[in-house]
Amino acid sequence: MEDKREIFDYNEAIAELEKIAARVEDPATGLDEIDRCIRRSDELIGRCREYLRCVRTKIDTL
Fold it and tell me: What's the rounded Cα separation, in Å, for the pair 16 and 10?
């Protein structure tokens, strides 16, 4: 059976968040797009926090 879990890449998430921030700051971006950006940002930030908590736990156990 194939493992379908997505591998999280922290650096890619940060790069995507930077792109989202630029999109939101652009006056040409519509409200619907800003709403999608905010929802995606919330998801990415949550995953980044989870990743950092896991890394911190691993470091603390060393």
Answer: 10
Residue found by looking up tokens 């940002």 in the block: 41
Is 3 strand, coil or helix?
A: coil
Q: What are phi and psi of 6, to 5 degrees?
A: -80, 135
Q: What is the pLDDT of residues 1-40, one digit of tens each?
A: 445 567 999 999 999 999 999 999 999 999 999 999 999 9
Return the structure tokens found at 23: 């999109």
Residue 18 tokens, joined? 């930077």
Token pair, residue 27, equals 């006056």
Tokens (6 digits) for 30? 């519509």
